[in-house]
Model the fold of this input.
Amino acid sequence: MSRSQHSGSGSPGLRLLRVGENIRHAISAILARGEVQDPALVTASITVSEVRISPDLRNATIFVMPLGGDEDGAITKALNRHSAFIRGQMSRTVHMKYMPRLRFLLDGSFDEASHIDALLRDPRVVRDLAHDDDPETGDED
Done:
């Protein structure tokens, strides 16, 4: 295995990141043009936040976040139902030897970021941070 494809640190190589970004742009364009005909997707505004490619380039996990959320999972189910169509449309712009199988998942990173922001705004945390920022007396030069 070449050094460029497997760095040994567990993080994806530059090639995997580049392919994932190309796929992300292609899927975003397909969804923006409204090429997927499904009642659940007609009025949905969907953000494609990340694409993770398997090391063999055969599978792609696409993380999406619909505007307003997807509590019942209807949007991700619709995207997974139409993954073959999206894959075919994507093959027109992304040129690869094998087009990866697509699996759509709801992106939880936005919820996690909101939770962390709420924790940082907690009055007890703000008090502790303000206490740490006060200059200590007694160590003056």
In short: The domain at 14-107 is CATH 3.30.300.20 (GMP Synthetase; Chain A, domain 3). The mean pLDDT is 82. Strands lie at 46-53, 59-66, 101-106.
